[in-house]
Amino acid sequence: MRLSILRHAPALTEGRLAGRRDVPADCSDCDALARVRARISVPEQIICSPALRCRQTATALGLAWDRTDPALWEQDFGAWEGMPFDALPDLGPLDTTQLARHRPPDGESFADLCARVTPALRALHRDTLVVAHAGTARASLSMVAGDGALSFAVAPLSLTVLHRHGDQWSVEATNLPIFES
Is 144 helix (H, G, I), strand (E, B) or coil? Predict the structure, then answer.
């Protein structure tokens, strides 16, 4: 089974942390969207995060999703939601394991996110494209890399591709950009 996760188009956040805030996507770059559409194959099923930015991205790509899944929402950053990026606490001193377990006030940790997302991904049994978030892509990578998945960059409109062979997952690509033709 092949699992492809497409991160949504750039979120219109005005320099603030979006997380669970239902902000729109900037789907105005028609050339980038055309490159994405040319790169992705139409799988057996398409699942979308319920977030507006994900549904807008799928619509802009001409993709009809089979369903939305609330388990695929971005990480809940609690009290940090909507804060300007430059006002967020500095978590740089934390190692990867500490960072994965760090929970923002009234929010969820990366470990919590993985506990929510990975069962939904493991339940898939056919080739699937998921239109979701950077956190969702990193949670998928955690099935192979553990907490080290936090080290991966996941740009807007990039693909993360995994394969499952039996119960084992492998990574084909991460942060696969959509190059200019």
Answer: helix
User: What is the three-class DSSP state of 37?
Assistant: helix
CA 60/CA 84 separation, integer angstroms: 28
The alpha carbons of the chain give a radius of gyration, in whole angstroms, of 16
Please indicate, yes or no, whether the overall pTM of this predicted structure exceeds 0.70. Answer: yes
Tell me how far apart the alpha carbons of residues 138 and 104 are, in angstroms, rounded to a whole number: 18
Beta bridge partners of 7: 132
Q: Which tokens belong to 110?
A: 């990366």
Q: Which residue's structure tokens are 């900037």?
A: 26
- For residue range 6-20, list pLDDT tens digits in order: 999 999 999 999 999
Q: Indicate the angle between helix axes 110-122 and 134-145, nearest 10 degrees.
A: 80
Strand partners, 169: 164
Q: DSSP character for 138?
A: H
Contacts of 51 (CB under 8 A, 6+ apart): 8, 22, 73, 74, 132, 133
Q: Distance (Å, rounded) from C-alpha 26 to C-alpha 56?
A: 9
